[in-house]
Known about the structure:
Number of strands: 0
Strand content: under 5%
Shape: globular
Number of helices: 12
Radius of gyration: 20 Å
Oligomer: single chain
Distance between the termini: 28 Å
Structural class: mainly alpha
Helix content: over 70%
Amino acid sequence: MHIQLSDHFNYNRLFKFSLPSIIMMIFTSVYSVVDGFFVSNFVGKTPFAAVNFIMPFLMILGAVGFMFGTGGGAFIAKTLGEGAHQKANRYFSLFIYISFLSGIIIMIGAYFLLRPIAELLGAKGAMLDDCVLYGRIILASLPTLILQFAFQSFFITAEKPQLGLAFSIAAGITNIIGDGLFVAVFHWGLAGAAAATTLSQAIGGLLPLFYFARPNTSLLRLGKTNFDKSALLKACTNGSSELMSNLSISLVSMLYNIQLMKYAGEDGVAAYGVLMYVNMIFLATFIGYSTGTAPIISYHYGARNHMELKSLLKKSFVMIGASSICMFVIAEILAAPLSKIFAGYDQTLLALTTRAFVIYSFSFFFRELQFTVPPFLPP
């Protein structure tokens, strides 16, 4: 069943349309989760703590892609709803080119700032060296990571969420296989885990680029564009909510890591890292739904279909609310098994991680508004 942005959405149709985006976000979150599993079990606790320590900073750098993707996708969908297809393609091309250029500029700056920032956050000795080693390898694929984050929204706007899912799965599988080979088989250690993630992020960003650059059956195609300051500002403004959500999560993680290093040492950072790995997979459901429904909402906003917008808002509250309850229950039941996957080799770390996860699971009750309201703000 082909679902179009212009359709009327009941619960079943809304779920089917947003499901690929949800799965896509889950596979995207697999990057750091798989790295964490292999590093923790095959390299050691200090490198594992280093990955957790520097990862929030790396995610801040990639958050620009969410801004261009969600804000640009909503703006393009609104333009499509107004019937201006050629203009929508020009906007799409502009946002992609700017995303890639931003990634290159941020990558160069972050390469030189990585060590000072890691020191400022409190990393020392071997852990500091591991942070710099892992971070600098990951930075090589930052432009393609930003593209991948942006394409997650643009595939939905182009009415090709299944294709976007396929590319994300391909990138996720590449990461899993790469970690297995580079870390577990070739014993390349932390550098191997970073190389596997870099390779998978390159695939996740470049394959969609090739698809949209050629004639295709979607609503969008890359081509010539012109610099439109007004359109870019509107896209960035509309995507700022998604940007700030990701920035706030990463900044809070960085602040936690600083305090954990001070009061609980590497064990505290490692335990919090496990918490964030599992949390990323859970939050991927909310973020995926928000990303998947944003183009629908923007299209009907552009078409001035206010009855459909009210219906979508009501259904979104119901679906996200039910998901919040389910995730709390699942988190409480699986706290110990999930913690054991990452910290089973160290009983002290395992006990600390399990207790922390049981407490943290209550936060899922309060995530509904954070991910339901932003897509309904006018693009």
